[in-house]
Amino acid sequence: MMAILRYAFLKSARDSSLAAFLIITIFTPAAVLAGSTLGKGHLHYPFYMNVLYTPQQSAELAGLLALGASVVFSNIAAFWTFRPEIASRSIGSFLFAARPLTITLALMVFAVAIGIGGWFGGMALIGALTTAFPPHFALIALKVAGASVAASAVGVLVVTISAHPTMIVCSYFGSVLLLVPLVEKSKSMQLLVPVAVSIVCTALAAFLLERRCAT
């Protein structure tokens, strides 16, 4: 798995997709905060989402944007990183050193690391710009981790079904749907849905990857 992760890192660093995924994830909430504040025609610190909001309320709303960005880019990274190898079937050469499930899990770990890393970077910027953090920080971090795992599993499943670039739209909408349970009041739904999606999608992706490489 470590060799596959290293390959994914070097490949993404070389084509600059790693930097793009992280930068967009980190700066999405900061860009919205800056737009909301500077849109009033003057510089104000701390930044805010609404002039009537307290710093903590602004941080909470910006935190939702950070959560959404991290989940979406976990999904996109999972779809995009090995897409050329899957499309050309050269991913089959990986099977000499690792099982399909190992390759699937390695790709998911890489994508989740991008999502969670971008989320922490985004939260640091939110704290610096608003002088506050969203309440229940630990619970939000748990939601981000679970949803990012599920989103990455969806991304891997979609790319094993079809590696055509336009399929990234289906992958994207799949990750957006995962955000719905996160706003539910039921904590069981917030945790059970990502777990169920992760298990099902990971198993299907590993099976389809094996079939793709065998044909």
Question: Helices and strands in order, then pairings?
Answer:
Elements: H1 2-14, H2 17-38, H3 55-80, H4 83-87, H5 100-130, H6 137-161, H7 168-182, H8 187-214
Helix pairs in contact: 1-5, 2-3, 2-5, 3-5, 3-6, 3-7, 5-6, 5-8, 6-7, 6-8
Which key terms come to mind for this protein?
77% helix, single chain, mainly alpha, 215 residues
Account of the 3D structure:
The protein has 215 residues and is mostly helical. Helices cover 77% and strands 0% of the residues. The chain is built from 8 helices and no strands. The chain has helices at residues 2-14, 17-38, 55-80, 83-87, 100-130, 137-161, 168-182, 187-214. The mean pLDDT is 90.
The tally of beta strands, per DSSP, is: 0
Uncertain ranges? none
- Give me the strand/helix succession: HHHHHHHH
**Structural class by secondary-structure content:** mainly alpha
Distance between the termini: 24 Å
- Give a short account of the largest sheet: none
Number of domains: 1
Helix share bin:
over 70%
Shape: elongated
Q: How many H/I helices?
A: 8
β-sheet strand percentage? under 5%
Using only C-alpha atoms, the radius of gyration works out to: 18 Å
Mean pLDDT: 90
